[in-house]
Amino acid sequence: MNPTELSKSPSDMKKALIDLLCQKSVKVSETDSFTLASGKKSNFYINCKPTALDPHGMYLIGHLIMEELRNISVHAIGGLTFGADPVAMATAFASGLKGKPLQAFSIRKEQKDHGLIRWVEGDVNPGDRVVIIDDVATTGGSTIKAISRAMETGLDVCKVIVLVDREEGGMNNIRQHISDASAILTRSELMEHFLK
Fold first, then answer.
1. Could you tell me the pTM of the whole model?
2. Omega into 82 within 30° of 0, i.e. cis?
3. For residues 163 and 135, what is the distance between their CA atoms, to the nearest angstrom?
4. What is the pLDDT of residues 147-174, one digit of tens each?
5. How many Cβ atoms sit within 10 Å of the Cβ of residue 186?
6. Phi, psi (5° rounding) for residue 183?
7. Is residue 178 within 8 Å of residue 159, measured between CB atoms?
8. pLDDT tens profile 30-58
9. CB-count burial class (<10 Å; 0-12, 13-18, 19+) for 17
């Protein structure tokens, strides 16, 4: 990573993240050839993992999410494995660099059947204020499942942040469960850049 990245403004980091996502994560087809997790077909597909697992992508994602959290106090950030994991870890690392450490946690899709038999892995306890994170929202189903599981284990979910809103109703569905929900980027922003 170029040392000048360290002094970039949030708007510059957002532009850099859009560029990186368009290079590594966005696919566009002339027909609805992509099947989404929701089962819907689409001509737009985004797999955030190649970007979220890239060192430059981690830096940008972590710092942009920390910018979203600048005015609230929370203990931890996490979501449903595997989509949320790299995003949560990038944010936890950035929080340490900024001197405002947050714990990262991961919510299992299936409950562990041995050991402590937990849905949530990480240093979190009932009553902790947490943020649920996800990489992409289409219908919001995986994010809503994460919210429910976190609440069932006694966590106080105070905010939701999604990396990319596909603008297909997912954010509205999420806000029916947690009103303070935001997205770092939208499909429109990515498509505008992608088509240039």
1. 0.90
2. yes
3. 5
4. 999 999 999 999 999 999 999 999 999 9
5. 16
6. -120, 140
7. yes
8. 888 787 777 778 888 899 999 999 999 99
9. buried
